[in-house]
Write a structure and sequence with these properties.
single chain; 12-stranded antiparallel β-barrel; 2 helices
């Protein structure tokens, strides 16, 4: 059914080309994450680096003087250096609606919906990623801008494993969450933009650790996971968590169409139990091109 919906989006995309502006975007990103496994204990943390290339092409059309809509098809291969089971390729579509409430520096609202199917090297992680975001931003003056956002994300795996614990679901990769964020940005020069943001997420996450009776007690799902070790048994647990995300980013425009970006994010997730918390440090370098 999901593929049928995606095919319908592709049909709408082709039908719109005749009377709308075409857009193309490419983003290549190198990421280092010191806790890709979301492990709770320091000795269980797994670090890895990845490189991704997100390509999107679509149509963009202006409706009136203050509103625009867009529809794009997306492809995104992601390759991990150490843990190849995390490598995947995503195919899907996204839609965008943008409305400005007046002239000049009036606030602008943006709504984005996206559906991607991710095909992992580790088959049990294959599934559909859904995201919906609404944001409101305003240019305060020539240098400062602010933005707030709310986002819903869900991941639904295509298949589940055989039962590990009687009576407990094995849908450990099926997660969801609501996020609320705020961002401020400052133009250092005509080419350099510095931004800082904070996001709070409430939902579920997948943590991979050695078998642990205490973690199991507070999990809503558990499944075997061989991504991080083919010899030592590891378990993927779905746990509830509240996550704080602090981020800093710098973007330098190379031209009217291209930019290079540096970003750092610190994530700390607190579980709704006696399990404590886990954290991650993410470093990203990306190159973007839009036409």
């Amino acid at each position: 059914m999901n593929w049928i919906a995606l095919s319908a989006c592709a049909g709408m995309f082709m039908a719109s080309i005749a009377h709308a502006e075409l857009r193309f975007d490419a983003i290549t990103t190198f990421t280092y994450d010191d806790n890709v496994s979301n492990s709770l204990e320091t000795q269980d943390r797994k670090a890895d680096s990845s490189i991704s290339a997100r390509l999107s092409g679509g149509v963009y059309e202006t409706l009136g003087s203050n509103t625009s809509v867009g529809l794009s098809l997306v492809a995104e291969p992601v390759s991990y250096v150490r843990y190849s089971g995390l490598s995947n390729i995503a195919l899907g579509a996204n839609a965008r609606l943008r409305h400005k409430f007046g002239l000049g520096d009036a606030p602008t609202a943006t709504f984005v919906a996206q559906a991607l199917h991710r095909d992992y090297h580790y088959d049990y992680r294959d599934g559909w990623q859904y995201d919906g975001t609404a944001s409101l931003g305003k240019q305060l003056n020539a240098r400062w801008s602010v933005r707030t956002s709310v986002r819903y994300d869900r991941y639904t795996a295509d298949q589940t494993q055989a039962t590990v614990v009687p009576g407990l679901s094995t849908a450990a990769y099926d997660t969801w969450g609501w996020s609320f964020g705020a961002q401020s940005a400052y133009w250092l020069t005509e080419s350099d933009l510095l931004s800082a943001s904070y996001t709070w997420r409430n939902g579920t996450a997948t943590a991979v650790t050695p078998p642990d009776a205490e973690v199991l007690e507070y999990s809503s799902a558990a499944a075997r996971d061989t991504v991080f070790s083919s010899t030592s048994p590891l378990i993927a647990y779905r746990i509830s968590a509240k996550t704080d995300i602090w981020a800093l980013a710098w973007s330098h425009a190379l031209s009217a169409h291209a930019a290079v970006n540096l970003a750092y994010s610190y994530l700390r997730s607190r579980t709704e139990s006696d399990l404590g918390s886990y954290y991650s440090n993410l470093f990203m370098i990306s190159f973007t091109y839009s036409y």
